[in-house]
Automatic annotation (TrEMBL):
GO terms for cellular component: plasma membrane. The keyword Flavoprotein does not apply. CDD domains: Alkane-hydroxylase (cd03512). The keyword Cytoplasm does not apply. It comes from Aliigemmobacter aestuarii. Pfam families: FA_desaturase. This is Alkane 1-monooxygenase. It is found in: Cell inner membrane. Its main location: membrane. It comes from the Bacteria. Residues 95-298 form the Fatty acid desaturase domain.
Length: 340
């Protein structure tokens, strides 16, 4: 737990200091998330061991709550620093945008992802609030009701197809997951589910967030909020793109896909970025055990599940350049296609 806490919380005071004091502080969080974490993976080539089966982590949820509440306070602070009367220079505001955007994209996203898989309704609602603040509330429904059911099939909008570039995947997955999540929630209501429709919360909450941006910094605040939200949610989609790229479940004679297996997700063994991202790169085990808390996620051996050649954030950067991405991934993908 010490690694998860230190790796995920350290950027926060650096980024807050950047808002308050500017100067070299504005680069602190950006350098930490964008460079330092990757360098730690390379400087200390270590694979964190699996937790013992059945191990419990009583403070794991406390860290999620701390990060969730910090996110809800930090997002408007970031918007004010970037677009409001913060006294920062244009260059400092740009650096803050990318620093906060990377924090929300690479730490807030996996934190909210963990929360929406919790059985406790208050933890679940905190995760929903985090996604809604990033104008991405529908992911709360689409991820649980669509992605986990249809991962590695064409029925899942968030499973990238072989040869599909990220730039084609992004609009298809965003729109497709919005629609698929809405369809899943409507189906639940047709079966008797009660209460306020989640999409009313997602859309209403998103509009309220943009209104807060306007209060903080007028039209510029609305643009800054929307820009940060788009940047952060795009990083989540980029993670989905990388972690399921090209992998497909075989269809059984009954017309249904085979059960999800370890070989249907790309994993990353790199210790520091895994700590910073709350073990999100241990993706196969998450699909096998969605309710398993992040410190207990296990890393399948490379002969049983595909491993990415570099840390997940670095591979995500490569995925932005489609020819380079295909050159790196297709030989590795071919080996797993022959094992299917």
């Amino acid at each position: 737990m010490a690694l998860f806490a230190v790796a995920s919380l350290t950027p926060l005071p650096l980024l807050v200091a950047g808002v308050l004091w500017g100067g070299p502080w504005v680069l602190g969080g950006l350098v930490y998330v964008g460079l330092f974490a990757l360098l730690m993976d390379q400087a200390i080539p270590h694979v964190a061991p699996d937790a013992p089966e059945g191990a419990e982590f009583p403070v794991a949820d406390a860290l999620l709550v701390l990060l969730g509440l910090a996110h809800l306070a930090a997002f408007p602070l970031a918007v004010w620093g970037i677009a409001g009367d913060s006294g920062l220079t244009g260059g400092e505001r740009v650096a803050l945008f990318f620093g906060w955007g990377m924090f929300f994209g690479q730490i807030s996203n996996p934190m909210a992802h963990e929360l929406i898989h919790r059985g406790d309704r208050w933890l679940f609602r905190l995760g929903m609030a985090v996604y809604t603040s990033m104008l991405f509330g529908h992911h709360t429904s689409a991820h649980r009701h669509v992605h986990h059911r249809h991962a590695a099939t064409d029925a899942d909008p968030n499973s990238a197809r072989r040869g599909e570039s990220f730039w084609r995947f992004l609009p298809r997955a965003w729109i497709g997951s919005f629609r698929a999540g809405l369809g899943a929630e409507n189906a639940l209501r047709a079966k008797g589910a009660r209460g306020l429709h989640p999409y009313a919360i997602y859309i209403g909450g998103g509009l309220a967030a943009l209104a807060l941006g306007a209060v903080l910094a007028g039209g510029a605040g609305v643009l800054a909020w929307a820009g940060l939200a788009l940047y952060a949610s795009s990083q989540l989609m980029l993670s989905d793109y990388v972690q399921h790229y090209g992998l497909r479940r075989a269809m059984l004679p009954n017309g249904k896909p085979e059960p999800v297996d370890d070989r249907h997700s790309w994993n990353a063994p790199h210790w520091f970025t895994s700590g910073m991202m709350l073990n999100a790169p241990r993706h196969s085990d998450h699909h096998a055990h969605p309710a398993r808390p992040y410190p207990a996620l296990r890393l399948p051996p490379p002969d049983r599940a595909p491993w990415l050649p570099y840390p997940l954030p670095f591979c995500a950067g490569v995925a932005l350049i489609p020819p380079l991405w295909r050159r790196m991934m297709h030989p590795r993908l071919k080996r797993w296609e022959t094992k299917a």
